[in-house]
Automatic annotation (TrEMBL):
Keyword flag DNA-binding: yes
Gene3D superfamilies xrefs: Tetracycline Repressor, domain 2
InterPro entries registered for this protein in UniProt: Homeodomain-like_sf (IPR009057), HTH-type_TetR-like_transc_reg (IPR050109), HTH_TetR (IPR001647), Tet_transcr_reg_TetR-rel_C_sf (IPR036271)
Keyword annotations: DNA-binding
Pfam families: TetR_N
SUPFAM superfamilies (UniProt xref): Homeodomain-like (SSF46689), Tetracyclin repressor-like, C-terminal domain (SSF48498)
Protein name (database record): TetR/AcrR family transcriptional regulator
DNA-binding region per UniProt: 31-50
Domain HTH tetR-type: 8-68
């Protein structure tokens, strides 16, 4: 990796290397030395960018969440064509869920990795309580991401949520977690579509 890269560019490169390794061997099997080797840098560079493996894993789960958010935000058409009112809100929410789903369906290994990072943090947290922060940071960041998308939908359709967005986003994330995990088990993409329809209906029931 070029020495001319900025710290943020180095961090992004190392995170991507860590994701690639974790997809192949699981989170628990990845070491900072492995990441350094995969990224083609010295171990010192890894520790310069990340205090330890836990800090790297925390940024890894954020990167996976950002990918999902960008899969929704980068499609300008869905936002530019939005009308106003609850019917328009349901259409927009469903469209956003569909864009998110397309990214999920195209990256099953990365989706499995999100569950592995959670399990890793919970298991390791029994002996090292600080590690539980990885899972908590993961869910807090995802809650915020879902809330941002839902508020974007609300603003675009000139509607209002009747349930606090923090509660709504937590519920949405819980449902999406279940849908994705079930899909990883049975690989039934066709069955996912009506589940997303139902979720969109349930979300819009909390709007006016």
């Amino acid at each position: 990796m070029s020495s001319r890269l900025s710290v943020e560019e180095r961090r992004a490169h190392l995170i991507e290397a860590a994701i690639g390794l974790a997809e192949k061997k699981g989170v628990a099997g990845v070491t900072t030395r492995d990441v350094a080797q995969a990224a083609g840098v010295s171990l010192g560079v890894v520790h310069y960018c990340f205090e330890n493996k836990d800090a790297l894993m925390t940024e890894l789960v954020k990167a996976l969440s950002i990918e999902l958010r960008e899969s929704v935000d980068t499609d300008d058409a869905i936002w530019n064509q939005a009308e106003t009112g609850k019917e328009a809100l349901q259409k927009l929410v469903r469209g956003a869920l569909e864009l998110m789903w397309r990214n999920i369906e195209a990256t099953p290994e990365r989706q499995l990795l999100t569950y592995e990072t959670t399990t890793y943090a919970l298991r390791e947290g029994e002996s090292t309580p600080a590690k539980i922060a990885i899972a908590r940071e993961q869910y807090a960041f995802n809650d915020s991401t879902v809330a941002d998308v839902m508020d974007h939908c609300r603003e675009a359709t000139d509607t209002q949520w009747t349930t606090p967005i923090a509660e709504l986003s937590r519920f949405i994330l819980n449902v999406i977690d279940g849908i994705v995990l079930r899909w990883l088990v049975d690989n039934d993409s066709e069955a996912v579509q009506p589940q997303l329809d139902l979720l969109a209906e349930m979300i819009v029931a909390h709007a006016r």
